[in-house]
Amino acid sequence: MSQWSQVQQLEIKFLEQVDQFYDDNFPMEIRHLLAQWIESQDWEAASNNEAMATILLQNLLIQVDEQLDRVSQEKNLLLIHNLKRIRKLLQGKYHGNPMHIAVIISNCLREERRILAAASMPVQGPLEKSLQNSVVSERQRNVEHKVSAIKNSAQMTDQDVKYLEDLQEEFDFRYKTIQSLEQSDKNSALIKQEMLALQAMLNTLDYKRKEVLSKIGRVIHEIDTLMSNMLTEELLDWKRRQQIACIGGPLHGGLDQLQNCFTLLAESLFQVRRQLEKLDELLTRLTYDGDPIPLQRPQLLEKVNFLLYNLFRNSFVVERQPCMPTHPQRPMVLKTLIQFTVKLRLLIKLPELNYQIRVKATIDKNVSTVSNRRFVLCGTHVKAMNMDESANGSLSVEFRHLQPKEMKSSAGSKGNEGSHMVTEELHSISFETQVCLYGLTINLETSSLPVVMISNVSQLPNAWASIIWYNLSTNDPQNLSFFNNPPAATLSQLLEVLSWQFSSYVGRGLNSEQLNMLAEKLMGQQVSYNDYQLSWAKFCKEHLPGKSFTFWVWLEAILDLIKKHILPLWIDGYVMGFVSKEKERILLKDKTPGTFLLRFSESNLGGITFTWVDQLENGDVTFHSVEPYNKGRLSALPFADILRDYKVIMADNVPENPLKYLYPDIPKDKAFGKHYSCQPNEVSKPSDGGGKGYVPSVFIPVSKILNDSTDPHSPSDLLPMSPSVYAVLREHLSPTVIETAV
How far apart are CA 395 and CA 401, in angstroms? Predict the structure, then answer.
């Protein structure tokens, strides 16, 4: 079943989550019509490979054209109209930046997998639940409403200033007219009456000036209150959601909405600034005793400038954290001399700033807070922000060719990069720029989340564990000394993050039973683990009891095994994986003989085994487990083919496949048939070369089981015999001869 088919069967509350991340950037109509084709492409790799992304975009448009031809024949007018619109939109939006649509589709597929994993869990995880708090959603709506109200108030004040300007012009004209008269004329009754009218007009001007200043003061106060409270909280929440998304959690949205709020507030503040400048112009033409403009305007202007400084400083954010293109699902782990990408955005989107802001990238700017290892950034580390590179027209800049290089230490040698401590050292990549606009000069600075620098890819698993632990445990964006005394983590939250590792990296998260097994492995038999605190050492530094490796190294090896060797089987949900030997026997003991399940080895790194139940002649139940298969064996023979061709030679020397039903009762071929590399009953024929032709052979895994053996059974060396040849031998030869052959 395709991933999209599974999504469509979700409950309405999960479907609503899916609906949130499909929009004009990637319309749901295309996801639906091209479901299988979309899922068969490697969008993740294309998101960091422009040539590959260009080809995929072209192929996507071809697929849309084919759908257009199909619906045209069906004369479906509405669908024809929508597909034409969507095709035009996709081509126009992504023609100059095909990698952007690859990022979007990759994120959508990943988010679908995460939601499918969440739907399979009995309850929503604590972290995800906190991120989807209804109070947060309500605050988002309030912020947008207040920003809109502030913008309207600023525009209304513009009209008041214009009225004040017109009133003062009329006063100036009438006053100058009287001043131009002869002294004798000024004593007339008519002129005295006009002077009284001018005094009344001056009183009105004074009242209007005070009123305008009061309205400007209220707008400034509303902006200040909004920025100090709700907008700051919104920005902090977005940054926290970004942290969680970086370690596999739900995609973080809301940056476009924040950009809209920041931009509208900046426009309102600049509008208020112009209003204060206009009042200053009016002041130069007319002032009087008790004039409110010289008394209030300086303080108001100072407050506006202060708010603009703060707004700009908060608007400079890292939109996409540093990440190596070779490891897109391991952000913030950087390898020396390997390029990485990072993207920044200014949330205040003003046309006047396009290509006017140059951003400089540095590493470990505040060197006093990091280790003795020193790095420099090679490559293009100064670039201009612009609105042309992003599909949504945001004011942003993406560094794509930065490389970290370690500097020689004072002793002339590099730091101890082989030690475990290297992966616990946190570093920071900083970005600085300057905005010059309307007479204001504002220095901006921001930093990435802490990164871990490695010099060898073998350090990546432990480095990624450090990134997970940091971003799970703290929302402090710059605590570079975090691992001097790393805090414990709540086990329930950690298990949720571990499930995200599977849903984001290998397409299927963990269910409650699998998570329970991991919990037991981490803390032993406990009644409840919701409030259990797990130390960093127990997670990543201390060896598991009786083993030569840590819990995290064991889990990372399983992720690698799934990704490289059994991914389709894992995604289909046919690998139980995390189940103890004791639980395994409880599950199998009452099942039909030949029922088996697949589990990950607890004693071998990156190993997978299968156990089946059998029944002796006396009715007793027995269990057989094969020696775990590691990546070496699985590189030679696909795991599905192993399950299909696996043979056991019993004491009577009759080879047979003992695997009949995948737990609980799924016929083996029904579960794995579509993953077989070839059909076993196809008889191979010599090639067209006469005597030079060869009959193709395959490897068949064989184990020998002795009746009195209670030890786990190991597969012998894989034997080069085609299934078709074996079938013919079995049909025509006796078991004794077959034993000689194998």
Answer: 20
Is the model's pLDDT at 452 over the cut of 90? yes
Residue type at 554 in one-letter notation? W
pTM score, whole prediction = 0.79
Q: Which residue has the tokens 């995604």?
A: 571
Does the structure show a pLDDT above 60 at 685?
Answer: no
Cα–Cα distance measured from residue 288 to residue 418, given in angstroms and rounded to the nearest whole number: 77
DSSP codes of every residue in 421-442: GGGG--B-EEEEEEEEETTEEE
- Residue-range domain boundaries for the chain: 1-119, 139-313, 323-407+419-454
Q: Is the predicted pLDDT of residue 527 greater than 50, yes or no?
A: no
CATH entry 2.60.40.630 includes domain 323-407+419-454: yes
List C-alpha distances in Å: 78 to 23, 87, 135, 285. 18, 14, 39, 63
* Helix axes 134-179 and 255-285, enclosed angle (nearest 10): 20
The residues with which 342 forms a beta bridge, in sequence order, are: 399
Pick from 313-327, 613-627, 658-672, 678-692: least confident: 678-692
Summarize the chain as % helix, strand, coil (round to 5). Answer: 55, 15, 30
Kind plus residue range of the DSSP H or E element containing 661: strand 661-662
Tokens of 465: 């564990």
Pairing mode of beta strands 440-447, 429-437: antiparallel
Eight-class DSSP state of 579? -
User: Which residues are 713's β-sheet partners?
Assistant: 626
CATH of 1-119, one of 1.10.532.10, 3.30.450.40, 3.40.50.450, 3.30.505.50: 1.10.532.10
**In CATH, what number does 139-313 get?**
1.20.1050.20
